[in-house]
Protein 1
Amino acid sequence: MKRIILCLGILACSISVVNARDIGQWGAVDPEIREWYQALMQPDVPNASCCGEADAYWADEIHVKDGKTYATITDDRPDEPRGRPHVALGTEIEIPNNKLKWDRSNPTGHGIVFLSRGGYVFCYVQPGGV
């Protein structure tokens, strides 16, 4: 069952990446940032992408509650140019421990959570570490 869910998650991510490239939001992004997004891999599935900007939400507030990690959505950028569904400011997202990504610097200056359209967490990248 886990393998099926993982495959579906990878498939959804692949589809999202294609959509992200097709709608043109990469044109206005610094090439260094674009390359960073495209090179991110899931910490628990190192050959699977964290996805792209169409799946990325700023989540600068992170905290631990009852032994679980949560990131709070702080992204007030418009969703339409990014081709992503809306997630309201202040929404708390539980980040599974195996999705915490600590092995890459982050040139965006923001914590970023990568979500599928169904709310599955692909990755969480800590803020800072430029």
Protein 2
Amino acid sequence: MNGKALLEVLAVSFRLGLTSFGGPTAHLGYFRAEYVEKRKWLDERAYADLVALCQVLPGPASSQVGIAIGLLRAGWIGGILAWIGFMLPSALALAIFAWLLQGSNIGEPGWLHGLLAAAVAIVAQAVWGMAKSLAPDRPRATLALGAAILTLVWPSAWEQILLLLFAGWIGWQWLPKPLMQVIPTPGATLSKRGAVICLTVLAVLLLGLPAFRHTVSSPFLALFDSFFRVGSLVFGGGHVVLPMLQSEVVAPGWMSDTQFLAGYGAAQAVPGPLFTFAAYLGAVISGWKGALLATLAIFMPSYLLVAGALPFWSRLRVMPNVRGILNGVNAAVVGLLLAALYDPVMTQAIHSPFDAALALFAFGLLMVWKQPSWAVVLVCGVLGALL
């Protein structure tokens, strides 16, 4: 594989890991700005298809989208480097928090509040851009609005999965099914054999680790099993993972509720995926070895799932019937993003007229002045700290 492409994937994902505040929905906005608009590694429709795929897989959707883009850009190693780059800044920061700030709870300083306001603008920009491309006509716009309404009145991970399935059925039955040509993508030749191996490894570990854990008394094996199982089975990603993690690490007595909640507070103050909360938990349980093992365990299923699904997905997405399904799913994804713009993004960020003004200012920098998202994040962080 081209070494230049691998280094490029690592560098871009690392910068996104340093600047992507605001949770998984905001991350998708950052990814779209970087990979679709700026670098044009893939087009809007291909990006939306990747988002749709990762929405229906268990695990952290935004991290999986980044892994998928790394796989398409630079092959199997590219997917690994995309994951490492995106998660490394926050994982290191949270491991250091575990060492320095155990038992203390982090509030919401002004600079963090400024970053949340920037996230509102970034998500709004993503919704606007994706709506123009993926819900341009009355049927798809109606489907997007319906998805947003249902998500707001019935918020749950299972609702989102059922909604995407229903939207796919509507697309299959009634929406246009345009023919598409396969767009050559550097590094996109991922083998089906490799995909089957990835899915087999996932199944063997998911089924075998619990049994092996009970026959071999090893705290590190128990740690790996707990975090691997959470990464394999949690749907919805992000904050949905917290109850499962709490039951895995607090109930066995590995840490107290106070330590757990302190880490949750720290996780809100760093960029990147919330799943790197595992680095904090692992560090509290077993130091740096625990941090490394827990982080690897919780993210490994995401890589195996995406690598296992992507070679088949790349071929399926160009079939006419599948295109109709994806037209419906993509419109529903726009609705999900629209609902998420309100909750949790706006509900967490907008508490006063000043917050709304700062979010509008950030939106203007993005949409009118065409400033890069990382610069808007920095400006909002400084303004939040000062004001």
